[in-house]
């Protein structure tokens, strides 16, 4: 079991504040299930002597299976940000599926899950409360991971070649900052635009445009958090926004505040 704990990943907004409030550990899945699962993650916090902390996240384009006391379920890709109130002491165990990796389990367009959640009963036919209690009662990350992997192996679908195909396209979009619009992704992959849009709806749950946009806004938020932004126009241009006002509109629409307001909130 390899722990990939490091700095908080992109998408955790105001990460410099967040890393003082909770810990995040990530673990590689076993070879037999890595076709579907990107990694496991565990968040823990102890704020018994502090005020509650509201953590906001701009999610990656992945479905997550989450075990949290009284709030377990399967969560589709959020369309904007989502916020989570951390108070007292607690923990969450999660399974982050590869982009497209949950489709073979659901066997229905992942877009049906976007911006919402569903129960383990609805997908796997098992009692959510019972499995939640069993997983969260285990004494360490390794045992929780083994129990959840055993559960997934019991319900493992056949590999779908489109999962690897879509997962690689999303990886390229994330890694290649020259991909600024859907046409760039089409040129990079050689895939027909309509085919790409159809596959993203079915396997990822959001459009290629949305995936590109959220990765670029991840970049923007990270640079703001790190204090490396000196000029808003330079930042917007580097992210592919040739109209600075368009960048501000997108940032506000997705993150909820303008870039300058976002920076002021962490001072």
TrEMBL record:
<keyword id="KW-0238">DNA-binding</keyword>
<dbReference type="Pfam" id="PF20240">
    <property type="entry name" value="DUF6597"/>
</dbReference>
<protein>
    <submittedName>
        <fullName>Putative transcriptional regulator</fullName>
    </submittedName>
</protein>
<keyword id="KW-0805">Transcription regulation</keyword>
<feature type="domain" description="HTH araC/xylS-type">
    <location>
        <begin position="167"/>
        <end position="265"/>
    </location>
</feature>
<dbReference type="GO" id="GO:0003700">
    <property type="term" value="F:DNA-binding transcription factor activity"/>
</dbReference>
<dbReference type="InterPro" id="IPR046532">
    <property type="entry name" value="DUF6597"/>
</dbReference>
<dbReference type="InterPro" id="IPR009057">
    <property type="entry name" value="Homeodomain-like_sf"/>
</dbReference>
<dbReference type="InterPro" id="IPR018060">
    <property type="entry name" value="HTH_AraC"/>
</dbReference>
<keyword id="KW-0804">Transcription</keyword>
<dbReference type="GO" id="GO:0043565">
    <property type="term" value="F:sequence-specific DNA binding"/>
</dbReference>
<dbReference type="InterPro" id="IPR050204">
    <property type="entry name" value="AraC_XylS_family_regulators"/>
</dbReference>
<dbReference type="Pfam" id="PF12833">
    <property type="entry name" value="HTH_18"/>
</dbReference>
């Amino acid at each position: 079991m390899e722990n990939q704990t490091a700095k908080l990943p992109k998408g955790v907004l105001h990460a410099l504040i967040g890393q003082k409030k909770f810990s995040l550990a990530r673990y590689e899945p076993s070879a037999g299930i890595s076709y579907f699962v990107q990694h496991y993650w565990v968040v823990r916090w102890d704020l018994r002597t502090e005020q509650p902390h509201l953590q906001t996240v701009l999610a990656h384009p992945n479905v997550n299976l989450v075990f949290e006391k009284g709030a377990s379920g399967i969560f589709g890709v959020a369309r904007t940000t989502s916020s989570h109130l951390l108070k007292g002491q607690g923990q969450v165990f999660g399974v982050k599926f590869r982009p497209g990796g949950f489709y073979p389990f659901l066997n229905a367009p992942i877009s049906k899950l976007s911006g919402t959640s569903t129960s383990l009963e609805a997908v796997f036919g098992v009692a959510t409360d019972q499995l939640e209690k069993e997983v969260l009662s285990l004494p360490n990350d390794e045992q929780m991971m083994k129990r959840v992997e055993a559960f997934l192996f019991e319900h493992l679908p056949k590999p779908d070649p489109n999962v690897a195909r879509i997962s690689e396209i999303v990886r390229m979009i994330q890694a290649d900052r020259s991909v600024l619009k859907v046409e760039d992704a089409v040129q990079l992959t050689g895939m027909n635009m309509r085919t790409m849009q159809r596959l993203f709806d079915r396997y990822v749950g959001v459009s290629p445009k949305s995936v590109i946009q959220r990765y670029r806004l991840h970049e923007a938020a990270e640079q703001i958090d790190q204090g490396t932004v000196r000029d808003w126009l330079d930042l917007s241009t580097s992210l592919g926004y040739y109209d600075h006002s368009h960048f501000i509109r997108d940032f506000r629409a997705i993150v909820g505040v303008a870039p300058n307001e976002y920076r002021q909130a962490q001072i």
